[in-house]
């Protein structure tokens, strides 16, 4: 197990799309969401409670998720995270902090909500405006970075 989380934190700050994996009575399902990370490795995203990836959450909120950099034709560039985690809805006490962090990272989403430029943006903004912030709290993380050597990995259990 690796002790230093600095490379993991840097990776999480550099990327923006988290793929959530859930399972329901229809079978397995994945969903990409825009996320922002905090200093404690929590990831925050905005979603509607009626989406399949939220409605399908088990009672304990446990999910699997991954984050990967775009592959650019060089195996040394393969870099990503696989994780086991818990998802919970951000409560009112923490909502302002989550929103501030999220909208600082994604001002275009805030603009869709506050100042849509056309009818399509109005629909998108209205949907985001009815959504909630969710927190992903990792319990296990595997960080793969081929730049450190083929199949180089560090793991953390939290």
Written description of the protein model:
This protein is an alpha+beta fold. The chain has a single domain (6-102, 132-147), classed as Electron Transport, Fmn-binding Protein, Chain A (Pnp Oxidase, Chain A). 29% of the residues lie in helices and 39% in strands. It has helices at 6-14, 52-55, 92-105, 107-114, 119-129, and strands spanning 17-24, 27-37, 43-47, 62-68, 79-89, 132-145, 153-157. The chain has a six-stranded antiparallel barrel. Strand 1 and strand 2 (27-37) form a beta hairpin. Helix 3 (92-105) packs across helix 4 (107-114) and helix 4 (107-114) crosses helix 5. The model has no long low-confidence stretch (mean pLDDT 94).
> What's the shape?
globular
How far is the first residue's CA from the last residue's CA? 11 Å
The structural class is alpha+beta
Fraction of residues in β-strands? 35-45%
Considering the protein shown, what is the CATH homologous superfamily? Electron Transport, Fmn-binding Protein, Chain A
Q: C-alpha Rg, in Å?
A: 16 Å
The total of beta strands comes to: 7
Average the pLDDT over all residues and give the rounded result: 94
Main beta sheet strand tally, sense and closure: 6 strands, antiparallel, barrel
**Topology pattern, helix = H, strand = E:** HEEEHEEHHHEE
Strand order of the largest sheet: 1-2-3-6-5-4
Helix content: 25-40%
Low-confidence stretches: none
Integer tally of domains: 1
- The assigned CATH architecture is Roll
- CATH topology-level name: Pnp Oxidase, Chain A
Work out the helix count: 5
CATH class value: Mainly Beta
């Amino acid at each position: 197990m690796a002790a230093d989380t600095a490379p993991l934190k840097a990776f999480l700050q550099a990327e923006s799309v988290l793929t959530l994996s859930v399972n329901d009575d229809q079978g397995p399902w994945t969903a990409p969401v825009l996320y922002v990370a905090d200093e404690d490795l929590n990831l925050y995203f905005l979603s509607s409670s009626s989406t399949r990836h939220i409605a399908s959450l088990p009672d304990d909120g446990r999910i699997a998720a991954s984050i990967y950099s775009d592959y650019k034709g060089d195996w040394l560039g393969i870099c990503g995270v696989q994780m086991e985690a818990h998802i919970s809805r951000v409560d009112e006490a923490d909502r302002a902090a989550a929103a501030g962090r999220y909208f600082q990272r994604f001002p275009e989403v805030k603009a869709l909500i506050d100042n849509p430029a056309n009818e399509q943006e109005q629909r998108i903004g209205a949907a985001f405006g009815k959504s909630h912030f969710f927190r992903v709290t990792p319990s296990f993380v595997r960080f793969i970075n081929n730049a450190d050597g083929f199949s180089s990995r560090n793991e953390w259990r939290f």
